Recover the amino acids of this structure.
């Protein structure tokens, strides 16, 4: 019998962004995220060929599986299926959720980016497992990004939508507390983490701000610079 996956109780949601990773590869960043106790990692890569994405994602799938970390693939349903990912994250212009659900079955998580109360309400009816909420603040990480939705939308979702949600977009160490104050529990910081000089130290600092102990029990070997 197929068991439907449940979005886990996390704090930080990892996302790859090789273009903004200070010369590190996506695989190197994923290794740092895993060692920092990150439990969900989204593979997002816009610039490479599908073959190169597949080869890279295969390695990341092996790393995440060995560590018991969930792997979400951004946009590419075929890639998610090919590497046996734990989920796929869709944008508003990607394949419709009902079509993707038929393709991936009930065992794979489906996330959906939302930018307005109407989109969040629709996501509930579509039966997605979690939603992205943002961009909370202006961001240049994505070339086709919509305008910032602000903290008000975060608060709306926290108070009105019965789905796990990940706040994303322009979130940094200096403003993450304001997002938490509006009701967010899960946060995606892309360049703030991937571009950090010391990723493990950055994640530890973010968790200190959030008052989170998630990942604190990670048995990974401490980074020599930590």
């Amino acid at each position: 019998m197929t068991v439907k996956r449940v979005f886990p109780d996390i704090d930080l949601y990892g996302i790859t962004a090789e273009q903004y990773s200070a010369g590190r590869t996506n695989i190197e960043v994923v290794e740092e995220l895993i060692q920092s106790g990150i439990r969900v990692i989204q593979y997002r890569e816009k610039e490479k060929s599908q073959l190169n994405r597949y080869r890279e994602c295969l390695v990341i799938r092996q790393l995440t599986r060995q560590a018991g970390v969930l792997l979400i693939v951004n946009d590419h349903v075929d890639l998610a299926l090919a590497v046996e990912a734990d989920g796929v994250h869709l944008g508003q212009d990607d394949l419709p959720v009902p079509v993707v659900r038929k393709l991936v079955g009930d065992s794979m998580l489906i996330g959906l980016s939302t930018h307005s109360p109407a989109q969040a309400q629709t996501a509930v009816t579509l039966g997605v497992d979690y939603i992205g909420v943002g961009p909370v603040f202006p961001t240049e990480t994505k070339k086709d990004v919509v305008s910032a939705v602000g903290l008000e939308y975060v608060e709306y979702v926290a108070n009105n939508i019965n789905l796990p949600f990940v706040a994303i977009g322009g979130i940094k160490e200096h403003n993450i507390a304001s997002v938490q104050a509006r009701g967010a529990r899960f946060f995606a910081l892309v360049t703030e983490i991937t571009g950090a000089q010391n990723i493990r130290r950055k994640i530890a600092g973010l968790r200190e701000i959030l008052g989170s102990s998630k990942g604190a029990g990670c048995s990974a070997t401490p980074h020599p610079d930590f």
Confidence is low (pLDDT under 50) at residues 216-226. Strands lie at 14-15, 40-43, 70-74, 87-90, 109-114, 130-133, 165-168, 186-188. Residues 40 and 70 are 5 Å apart (CA to CA). The longest strand covers residues 109-114.
